[in-house]
Amino acid sequence: MDVRTQMLEAAEKLLDESPTRDIATRAVCDAVGVGAPVLYRLFGDKNGLLKAVVDHGFDRYLATKRQARSSSDPVADLRTGWDTHVAFALAHPAVYRLMYSPGFAEVPSAAGEALGLLREVLVRCAAAGLLTTDPEQAAQAIMSANIGVSLNLVTQPEVYTDSGLSVRVRDAVHSTLLRDHPATVPTPGPNATSAAARQLRALLDSTEQDRLTAAETALLLQWLAKLTADRS
Fold first, then answer.
1. At how many degrees (to 10) do helices 3-17 and 25-32 cross?
2. For 95-134, how does the pLDDT look when each residue is reduced to its tens digit (9 = 90+)?
3. How far is CA 111 from CA 47, 59, 92, 98, 166, in A?
4. Which of 181, 191, 190, 194 is nearest to 226 (CA)?
5. pLDDT at 232
6. Residues in CB range of 77: below 8 A, 6 or more apart
7. Each residue's pLDDT tens digit, 119-129
8. Where are the domains of the chain?
9. Among the CATH numbers 2.30.130.30, 2.60.370.10, 3.40.50.2300, 1.10.357.10, which is that of 54-182?
10. 3-state DSSP call for residue 131?
11. Residue 18 gets which letter from DSSP?
12. Distance between CA atoms of 46 and 24, rounded to whole angstroms?
């Protein structure tokens, strides 16, 4: 393990052990057995070190997401994705607090990739006729709830002691966004057209097709966007 990685892991361990959720750069250097100039050369300052700890955390979190194999059941994959998110937070509480409640000027770009990976699963749900709303809207709702539960569990464990909380919140959120059976033939009604348009859009996003030209595909997507637009 190189010195930089050793310092990142030492910083995480010290954060986990710190009652004030803060660390001293001197303690990080002492834990690895290097002098302060090494830390300054690698990270610039304490803020740079903490940013690097967050990036390192996201690298490990996203590695589990990228390596996850898709099953034939996108809803099961969606549930698994929620559960692995919470499990990561509980295994790395200090880093998770920094990842999703950062005091930095910019939110790490990796947070956008995490949302994108969730969106891909939801596109598969929509293509199967199981999603009741747009994948982007569903992704934002699920990620917000997933982060909220995880932060409560790691920042206030003495308050949120219910071991079944995460699963109940997960199922409650999913139930508002998913249907039990595929809507391959939409039930007649005011929402039937938009539901069919969402499913077709998801099918186009999740499968390769060569029957339409790029211009034809762009036009079709424009029409589908109009059909799925919220007119309330």
1. 120
2. 999 998 877 777 888 999 999 999 999 999 988 889 988 8
3. 19, 10, 16, 12, 21
4. 194
5. 46
6. 68, 70, 71, 121, 124
7. 999 999 988 88
8. 1-44, 54-182, 184-232
9. 1.10.357.10
10. strand
11. -
12. 8
| Nearest by Cα to 196 from 227, 170, 219 | 227
* 131 φ, ψ (degrees, to nearest 5): -105, 135
Domain covering 1-44 in this structure, CATH number: 1.10.10
Query: Token pair for residue 79?
Result: 């549930």
Task: Give me 176's structure tokens.
Answer: 């508002």
Q: Of the candidates 20, 38, 173, which has an alpha carbon nearest to the alpha carbon of residue 97?
A: 20
Query: Do 54-182 and 1-44 fall under one CATH topology?
Result: no
Count Cβ atoms below 10 Å from residue 78 Cβ, excluding itself.
23
Taking the CA atoms of 165, 161, 146 and 191 in sequence, report the sign of the dihedral they define.
positive
pLDDT of residue 45: 94
Tokens of 114: 């995490």
Determine phi and psi for 182, rounding to 5 degrees: -60, 135
Residue with tokens 């304490």, as numbered in its chain: 46
Query: Collapsing DSSP states into helix, strand and coil, what is residue 63?
Result: helix
Residue with tokens 């932060």: 151
